[in-house]
Amino acid sequence: MIRRRTASSLTVGASALATLLAGSAGAQDIDLGEIVVTPNRAPTALSGAGSTVEVIDEDSIEAQSRPLLTDYLNELPGLYVATQGGVGKETSLSIRGADKKYIKTLFNGIDISDPSATQVQPSFEHLLIGGVSHIEVLKGSQSTLYGADAVAGVIDISTLRNDPVGTTHRVLVEGGSNETGRASYGLSNVTETGRMSLDIAGLYTGGISAALVNGNPLIDPGQSSLEDDFYQNVTASFAGEQQMGDNVTIFGSGLLINSKGAFDDSGLPPTDNEMNEGHSRQMAGRAGISFDLMEGRFRNTVSGQLSEIDRDISSVSIFGPFEGEFNGRRGKLDYQGAFDVNDRLTLQFGADYERRQAHITNNYGTDTRDADWIAGIWGQVIAEPIENLTVTAGLRHDDHSRFGGYTTYRGAVAYLFPSTGTKLRSSIGTGFRAPSLYENNYVSYDPTVPLPDLEPEESFSWDVGMDQSFMGGRGTASLTYFQLDTDNLIDYDFIRDTYIQFEGTTRRRGVEMGLAYEVNDWLSLGGNYTYTTAVEADDERRPRIPRHMIGLLAEARPAEKWTVSASAKIALDTVDFISPSFGTYERVELDDYVLLNAKVAYKPTEDTELYLRVENLLDQDYQTVYGYGSPGISAFAGFKAKFGP
Asked: What sequence ranges are listed for the domain TonB-dependent receptor-like beta-barrel (predicted)?
């Protein structure tokens, strides 16, 4: 089952992890000593957590055996995934009504967002689950530690595992509907002083037609049916850390994603096109060192990372052939430190510098090259003024090469009632998002429209909630109210074909509720509900944000070696927009849907598993983006095994 946790984001050296894990201790009904870790940020006990974080651990990933990272994220409260036509197609993701350009996404500590994209954001459609062992989703503004553009939260993905000492091998093969096949291999090596992981995963699917509405196909008007849009992906990753002495640890990670697929014309609604293809290649690496001074009271981490993304798009339309190339590059240096004044007070501080470049060309004469940089310094205080009360307060100042200086802040508080297993928590924060290189340089089809004249968006967010343990720790419940306001929203103007600044405040607010309960030793149940309202300054609703979302989970072990699990995602009251003609748009309502998935697994041995899983068990005809198809009922059979200590 996917577990729900709360955590505050602190910063210490990686070498502190083993000590904290060894020294953690539970308290009464709730495991307050449990540690939530973001790579090279602070291991944090739940008792001092002021922000909401969702944790998807290795057991949850193994239990469901889904192929994509977004398959798991979509089951979390407050998160919603919308896809333009199935596996590998353009995918949007939102947290509490704020889309992916407001979400900092890290893969083994590497920022995987694309500087050449429309907005600086990751391509979630290309993230396979193969090799991933741990996912954390921090909600709310995390500007102090992660940068001012972490407005809605942080998604952190890790492949390092806590396997027993020795070498462990993992394999998985699966095949099923829509000519789909995937395989993965992972190697994990753990010693007394270090650990590493090496993973490779591949997926191919014949796909479905992304164009649910055929309209007037631009290519081969005489065709009698829609053509399927294939997708293929090979992903390789590496991560490792090694102690070089009592107080020094070196670490590094690397990522390679190579994907290719067909897509249909994005006509709002789209039309079928068998000539369109896209190819994406992403390479990234990160390395650093952590060292402790003053008997571990003064912890330091220095790291650097480089990444490059190349995307090629080839298509044919009524305007003729289009060939576009997009190249995005990032380089980043980062220092973070922490000093324990005493047992109840820790000071944190750091600095970072990031440079982003984008180069965009096409056969219509576009040859745009641009770059910017941002440098930041920050400080944070974590204090426990009285027992069971933890207060966190941080301040950050960023200097942007184009837009000057901005100061943001974040605060969090958590208070625990140990006798009842109750925790009260709240957080508050600000942030800003500078216009992307693409937004700044967008050229309209109308020659009378000038280049965009944009300023950064500014945001303010806060939340308040509680977590409750009951039935001797077998059950947990949570309740959170959240609010996120954004001023000077940057968005695309369909009428003028350019990016503009919308005056006023875009408001997102709502409620999250979660419940998990271990009924007995063979049955576990879970559920969550999210109410979200997201409206622009003119009170028009933001697209692709369901007003009501319900998630349900169940796992049963009816007999030895057998496991049956099921999950459901229910989305109600969602709007999107269409463009009936060039330069116009209007909002439309999407149908409500219930997406039910199930899996039956049999374990011949402790380390092997045969399984059958079914997606969209109710064969729902649904859309998450207007006009784009989604797969019907689909079945997959697989085998996985682990070899090692």
From this structure: 241-617
End-to-end CA distance of the chain: 25
Q: State the CB neighbour count (10 A cutoff) for residue 333.
A: 15
Q: Which of 82, 6, 44 is nearest to 348 (CA)?
A: 44
pLDDT, residue 49, reads 77
**Residue 56 · residue 68 · CB < 8 Å:** no
For 59, 177, 204, 324, 566, the CA distances from 612, given in Å and listed in that order, are: 17, 12, 18, 41, 12
Within 10 angstroms of residue 125's Cβ, the number of other Cβ atoms is 25
The DSSP secondary-structure symbol of 69 reads: H
* Burial of residue 111 (number of CB atoms within 10 Å: 0-12, 13-18, 19+): buried
Query: CA-to-CA distance for 409 and 394, rounded, in angstroms?
Result: 6
Nearest to 583 by CA among 490, 489, 438, 446: 446
d(CA 95, CA 107): 18
- What are the chain's domains? 3-643 (2.40.170.20)
Mean pLDDT for 582-600 is 89
* Predicted pLDDT at 581: 67
**CA separation for the pair 461, 480 (Å, rounded):** 13
From the list 481, 379, 569, the residue with the least C-alpha distance to 52 is 481
- Listed in order, strand segments (DSSP E) in 87-230 are 91-95, 98-99, 103-107, 110-111, 134-139, 153-158, 166-176, 180-190, 194-205
- The answer to whether the pTM exceeds 0.90 is yes
Single-letter amino acid code for the residue at 408: T
